[in-house]
Amino acid sequence: MKLYKETVYMRENNNNEEKPPMQNITINIPEIYDKNIQKLKEKGIVSSRSQAVRLALKEYLEKEYSINLKLLNFFDEEK
Fold first, then answer.
1. Cα of 56 vs its chain's centroid, Å
2. Deepest in the core among 12, 40, 52, 78, taking most CB within 10 A?
């Protein structure tokens, strides 16, 4: 359950402690998504586009994990 543990770590450790390594990826999103992310930044809800995408992906994976991914053995089980 590596991904789950990293998600919990990110939620519980929002200070300057050592964080799991990040991967740099490039994505294309519709302009309306970007405009809404900019609104979230202006309101101080997120600090960057990257943070907004990470939060959205984390919430999606948590939801899917509880519904489908566990059934499909998507996550590696640590021994």
1. 6
2. 52
What percent of the chain is modeled with pLDDT above 90? 43
Residue 5's pLDDT is what?
46
Is the pTM higher than 0.70? The answer reads no
The angle at the Cα of 31, spanning 27 to 33, to the nearest 5 degrees, equals 75
CA angle 63/66/68 to nearest 5° reads: 95
Q: Compute the distance between CA of residue 62 and CA of residue 68 in angstroms, rounded to an integer.
A: 10
pLDDT value at 24 more than 50? yes
6 closest CA partner among 28, 29, 22? 22
Token reading at 5 = 């543990």
> Quick one: which of 18, 13, 25 has its CA closest to 54?
25
